[in-house]
Amino acid sequence: MKVLVVGGGGREHALCWAIGASPLCDKLWCAPGNAGIAQEAECVPIGAEDMDGLIRFAQENQVDFVVVGPEAPLVAGLVDRLDALGIKAFGPSAAAARLEGSKGYMKDLCAKYGIPTAAYGRFQDAAAAKAFVDREGAPIVVKADGLAAGKGVIIAQTVPEAHAAIENIMGDRQFGDAGNEVVVEEFLAGEEASFLAICDGEDFVSLASAQDHKAVGEGDTGPNTGGMGAYSPAPVVTKAIEAQVIAEIIRPTMAAMKAEGAPFKGVLYAGLMITEKGPQLLEFNVRFGDPECQPLVMRLKSDLLSCLVGAADGVLRTMDLLWHDDVALCVVMAADGYPGAYEKNTEIKNLAAAGALENVTIFHAGTVAENGRILANGGRVLGVTARGADIAVAQINAYAAVDRIDWPQGFCRRDIGWRAVAR
Ligand code: AMP
Ligand code: GLY
User: Fold this and answer.
1) Which of 158, 255, 269, 364 lies in the 20 to 30 Å Cα band around 107?
2) Residues 38-82: pLDDT tens digits?
3) Are residues 8 and 86 in the same domain?
């Protein structure tokens, strides 16, 4: 079949790497892609948010199947439009994508259907939000309702900090319309994990567990990023926790979305806090995690494309996924300054030598090729991913590849996987 992947980050490189290897895939395009994706797919210069351009391309090229990587086009209704034209696509409808597109919607759904999540209030008025903070006290968490590229969440240690966050979001409109509303919620303590399931509206198959590292600095310090590294499996998600997540969060959400008239198809990504009371839902994403997708696809034995098509066709009941037993770990290399301002167009050398190491795959997140050179053109630039018999070996393999890469203007955290190693 002829497949189009939408997006151009590390997640989409990992998706193209897995989809391109499928016996079902005859032709693979990626829009817009990047310099690494160009090794797996034909990149076409159409932005992931250019809906008209993507649809025109899919029609003109008789694309059989579209896989949408990022959340923005899903929330904007790309899959609905493709569906209406009879073009098969993987990802939720706009109505179902509200699970990520509106934190208030997600919280209300959890409240209505008894899905475990932090206690919260939902506000369109800054004064009311501040009064709620005054009543509840700190620490407390303030979230912009809409999409804010992972930056719309503020963990306030004090009441004045929480007030300032509300002011920034609602008064100064730091995240634009995403801040028309805020969710203020209880602070949860515990260890975080990601649990992803591929869903067909009715049934689902679980992916292996994973853990992200959101903070920019070692020891999980400093500002939050899109994710500085990830590994799979995450030992905090024991068999018992996994069963609880499925029984208390994934299944009830699937049933709830069906009852609400918006059955969920696509990747349901539950961001979890494993607390003393058990797993609590922090957020839903409606797509693969980035960088969680990179280690997940490296551990996947089964054919990813068949599973994605199975989800779109509603036949997941008959499917299962097989995994390699080893651990995979992805170290993100980012441009100096990220998640703040950073330089673009710096040259990265020695990628081929680093990628040639055994059990290593380098996924590109923000690169362009220019006259045979690879240049960084984003904040998160590479996802150096390695497999190993256990977390320590995977870590050694990944950093061995990182150390071969010659990119003076880049940096990475040196402690990806530390929680699993500490266990
Ligand atoms: P979110 O985008 O909602 O996952 O939030 C981003 C990050 O903020 C999460 O990965 C957590 O580290 C943190 N966070 C979000 N909500 C809470 C909460 N209720 N309690 C503690 N930490 C939270
Ligand atoms: N790695 C976190 C996310 O994809 O949202």
Assistant:
1) 158
2) 999 999 999 999 999 999 999 999 999 999 999 999 999 999 999
3) yes
| Gap between the Cα atoms of 312 and 308, Å rounded | 6
Residue 104 lies in a domain: no
Pocket around ligand 2: residues whose beta carbon is below 6 Å from it? 150, 212, 227, 285, 289-290, 292
Q: Is the beta carbon of 192 within 6 A of some atom in ligand 1? A: yes
- In the reported structure, the alpha carbon of residue 226 is separated from the centroid of ligand 1 by a whole-number distance in angstroms of 12
Q: Among 221, 273, 419, which is best to mutate for testing ligand 1, by the most ligand atoms less than 8 A from CB?
A: 273
Q: Is 103 inside a domain boundary?
A: no
Average pLDDT over residues 144-168: 92
Residue type, 410: G
144 strand-pairing partners: 182
Contact (CB, 8 A) for 348 and 381: yes
Structure tokens belonging to residue 168: 């920034």
Q: Which two tokens stand for residue 84?
A: 């209406």
Mark whether 197 and 301 lie in a shared domain.
yes
The CA-based diameter of the chain, rounded to the nearest angstrom, is: 60
Mean pLDDT of 372-384: 97
Give 288 Cα–ligand 2 centroid separation in angstroms.
8
Residue 422, pLDDT above cutoff 90: no
With respect to residue 313, please indicate whether it lies within any of the assigned structural domains. Answer: yes
**End-to-end Cα distance, the chain:** 44
238: CATH: 3.30.470.20
Q: In the predicted model, what is the mean pLDDT of residues 125-153?
A: 93
- Domain count for the chain, please give it: 4
Domain extent for 158: 119-186
390-395 mean pLDDT? 97
**Distance from C-alpha of 164 to C-alpha of 331, rounded to nearest angstrom:** 33
Tell me the average pLDDT across 267-273.
97
